[in-house]
Design brief:
Strand content: under 5%
Strand order of the largest sheet: 1-2
Number of strands: 2
CATH superfamily: Amino acid/polyamine transporter I
Length: 421
């Protein structure tokens, strides 16, 4: 056989779905699929990247950057929606490549997706660890700095000398918890994800509502700051570069496609899940970014890891002596809680996706048979899930977030290119 041999959709469905105990359960409806998409998309992007892009590139026009990035994401989302409805099996970009471009391209993209999903989960686990330490500090609890980051990372300690970390324990613990949840069942995982999504959506809406009361319209002028003479630093080129940075805040909708084999009516519900989650998140991203740059002058958010907290802090300072002073102090804690919830649900979706890629590759003979085993009771690819959990735990415990983030960007870009092709 040629290494570029393809398989028909009928053959893929027959081999991937299979009979009896090896079959994944079709238990996910449109609401659960939309929830999975929202859970994957709303993460570090909305809590971190918005402030960075506004300060360095677009200014108040970060709102336009959000719209451009959202429209660009729709083009990729339409490709994923078409494929997920036409080839309703696990495997996502790997399976689509096998059906169209051949076995060799599918093999490459199958391994490439580890960068997007497994290392994506590891990146989020590191961010989750940092937010947990921040929340504990807000509550007056000190977490040992030496076990809060990757080896060699210099951790600042309030009132003391910086400490060199040796291992990221919180990142490993959240990875273990998510792995156990995913082994128990996809329906249970989707339910937990839905609860988390409701929590973080509530936090985002509270931030939008409370922040809107303290917007200073002067911070929106000029809406598009004049270019500094360097491409990408304000002006229209800055809006476009801001859209490029923000684009990665939309990553996650493609993970919904890996659940096609567990959707009750994939031809109808997969496009709804992918496009619906993207539409909801685009609206929220536009509102959050508009409120944020309306409260705080955009330049103040340069190199700030938590721009939403900076914005709520500024609102709280304006509210001193008013009835809003106490509630805004609570909102500051809620923002951190919302970040933890956001990152938790992203991990659930990413670590749900990766084992299903392994399952598809195993049933095509490109991975050992054990990788495609489905638990007779839980109906989940339990062995692949355990292997994924171990890999994510080690990566998150030992690797700096900057290195992980770069690898995730490479993997995602390659997946989008292959699917579009």
């Amino acid at each position: 056989m040629s290494i570029f041999a393809t398989k028909s959709i009928e053959q893929i469905e027959a081999e991937q779905i299979g009979p009896g105990e090896g079959t994944l359960k079709r238990v996910l409806g449109p609401a659960q699929l939309v929830s999975l998409g929202v859970g994957a998309i709303i993460g570090t992007g909305i809590f971190v990247l918005t402030g960075q892009a506004a300060a360095a590139n677009a200014g108040p026009a970060i709102v336009l950057s959000m719209v451009i990035a959202g429209l660009t994401s729709v083009l990729a989302a339409l490709c994923y929606s078409e494929f997920a409805a036409s080839v309703p099996v696990a495997g996502s970009a790997y399976t689509y490549a096998y059906a169209t471009l051949g076995e060799f391209v599918a093999w490459v993209i199958g391994w490439d997706l580890i960068l997007e999903y497994a290392l994506g989960a590891a990146t989020v686990a590191v961010g989750w660890s940092g937010n947990l330490v921040t929340l504990l500090h807000q509550l007056g609890v000190t977490f040992p700095a030496a076990i809060s980051a990757a080896p060699g990372t210099i951790v600042k300690v309030a009132g003391g000398d910086p400490i060199t970390a040796v291992f990221n324990v919180p990142a490993v613990l959240i990875t273990i918890a998510v792995t156990l949840l995913l082994i128990i069942g996809v329906s249970e995982s989707a339910t937990v994800n839905a609860v988390i999504v409701v929590i973080k959506l509530a936090v985002v809406l509270i931030v939008i509502g409370a922040g809107a009361l303290f917007i200073d319209p002067a911070n929106w002028h000029p809406f598009i700051p004049p270019n500094t003479g360097t491409f990408g630093e304000y002006g229209w080129s800055g809006v476009l570069r801001g859209a490029g940075v923000i684009f990665f805040a939309y990553i996650g909708f493609d993970a919904v496609s890996t659940s096609a084999q567990e959707a009750r009516n994939p031809q109808r519900d997969m496009p709804r899940g992918i496009l619906g989650s993207l539409a909801i998140c685009t609206v929220l991203f536009v509102l959050v970014s508009g409120v944020m740059v309306g409260i705080v002058p955009y330049r103040q958010m340069l190199n700030e890891p938590a721009p939403l907290v900076i914005a709520i802090d500024a609102a709280a300072q304006r509210a001193v002596g008013s009835v809003w002073e106490g509630p805004l102090d609570v909102v500051k804690v809620l923002v951190t809680v919302g970040a933890l919830a956001a990152l938790s649900s992203v991990m659930v979706v990413m670590m749900l996706a990766q084992p299903r890629i392994f399952l598809a590759m195993s049933r095509d003979g490109l991975l050992p048979e054990w990788a495609g085993r489905v638990h007779p009771r839980f109906k989940t690819p339990h062995r692949s899930t355990i292997v994924t959990g171990i890999a994510v735990a080690l990566a998150s415990g030992l690797t700096p977030i900057g290195t992980l983030g770069t690898l995730v960007s490479i993997g995602t870009l390659m997946a989008f290119v292959i699917v579009s092709a």
